[in-house]
Design goal:
By secondary structure, this protein is α/β, with parallel strands linked by helices. The protein is globular. Among the domains are: about 80 residues, Rossmann fold (3-Layer(aba) Sandwich); about 150 residues, Vaccinia Virus protein VP39 (Rossmann fold). The longest helix has 16 residues. A 7-stranded mixed β-sheet has the order 9-8-7-13-14-16-15, with helices on both faces. The protein is built from 14 helices and 16 strands. The two termini are about 20 Å apart. Strand 7, helix 9 and strand 8 form a beta-alpha-beta unit.
């Protein structure tokens, strides 16, 4: 990257930090302006958003809404689900937050119906607006600029800028993440070339969805998969799914979390995200370096709900000695936008660092490290 490009980015980040938005306050003001708060969309991401809403906003959700008629009249997170027609009838009294991944059709419908307040809701930006004021502006700017300098291509820079502008900017562009979204999560075709003898480590394996994707992409031609899932319910689902697969003898599954030390740990149960370190669930975590010390590793994928820095530290020996390709989620915490790429680069300076984003919302931004 040229010096002029670096200076330009530093100036841009400096301006954003100097006038950074207070996102939590913006949302709170909306909830005070209108009698009703409505979440439109009763699907997979609703519960996750409500968790952050309750923590940072605390205002009661009066109604939710969905186009699925089977949901009308039902309670979701304690709020009655209205039909779209019922919602239109009270549109002038509502601050509506769209809580659906494919948000554009709903957003356009609400705008066309002349709702006065239609909004996106970024749960992780609510988190960021809580901790960012505690950081010195120059410290954040230095880390962001240092990260920008090590990004490997223009697409990575565009993803980086979209995130920075979303978190710190005025929030006016609802398509800010749509514009940088692409498919092929964890295995982008321009970065990860799969061979017939891969040994994948899947950390945060959920129900085995990445296993299925990987097996399909390799057409079953791989050496081994090692999959780790801390949550007992998710692990049970993954085990059942793996047992149905012809490749099951080459898939090793562990009801363990990956951490930087071996210990028992708590995590949340029954939430959309298993927050490690607090909650009623009990599990065991270990360093990857201890579990797979004698195994060849060619790819590490990691999505562990914000615990990625712990997981990376627990895999540092494998990363330094074998230099596997890495696909590490960085969307759970704005600080991970700089902490994770810079830490990976400190372990293996020869890694090329890339960013890719894989949804229309703030979820599923991944840092790729390619030797």
């Amino acid at each position: 990257m040229s010096n002029s490009s670096t200076v330009e980015m530093r100036d841009q980040i400096g301006k954003l930090l100097a006038q950074k938005r207070d996102y939590r306050q913006e949302v709170r003001q909306l909830t005070e302006k209108y009698p009703y708060v409505v979440f439109y969309g009763c699907g997979a991401i609703l519960h996750s958003i409500v968790e952050s809403w309750n923590e940072h906003i605390g205002r009661k959700i009066d109604f939710c809404c969905d186009s699925d008629s089977s949901k009308w009249g039902q309670l979701y997170c304690g709020a009655k689900c209205l039909s779209p027609n019922e919602l239109v009838a009270i549109k002038d009294k509502c601050a509506v937050f769209v809580t659906i991944g494919d948000f554009k059709p709903v957003y356009n419908f609400l705008k066309d119906s002349e709702f006065p307040s239609v909004n996106q809701l970024y749960k992780y930006d609510l988190d960021a607006s809580e901790f960012l004021p505690r950081y010195h502006q120059d410290e954040v700017m230095d880390k962001l600029c240092e990260t920008y300098e090590i990004l490997g291509d223009q697409q990575s820079q565009e993803v980086f800028c979209a995130i920075v502008n979303r978190v710190l900017g005025d929030g006016g562009n609802i398509d800010i993440m749509v514009d940088v979204c692409e498919k092929n999560q964890y295995f982008p075709l321009d970065l990860v070339k799969l061979s017939d003898n891969e040994q994948l480590v899947d950390i945060g394996a959920y129900n085995g969805d990445t296993i299925r994707d990987f097996v399909g992409r390799t057409k079953g031609k791989f050496d081994k998969i090692f999959s780790f899932e801390l949550d007992a319910i998710n692990f049970k689902a993954m085990k059942e799914n793996v047992q149905k697969m012809p490749e099951r003898d080459r898939i090793n599954i562990f009801n363990l979390g990956i951490w930087d030390s071996e210990q028992d740990i708590s995590y949340s149960i029954g939430k959309s995200q298993s927050t490690v370190g607090s909650g009623e669930g009990k599990g065991h975590v270990v360093p990857l370096d201890d579990v797979l010390s004698n195994e060849r590793v060619t790819i590490i994928k990691m999505d562990i709900e914000g615990a990625e820095p712990h997981g990376l530290r627990g895999a540092s020996n494998i990363i330094q000695s074998q230099q596997p390709r890495l696909a590490i989620c960085i969307y759970h915490d704005f600080r991970h936008l700089w902490e994770i790429p810079l830490y990976i680069k400190s372990l293996v300076p020869d890694y090329k660092i890339y960013l890719r984003h894989h949804t229309n919302l703030e979820y599923e931004t991944v840092c790729y490290a390619i030797p």
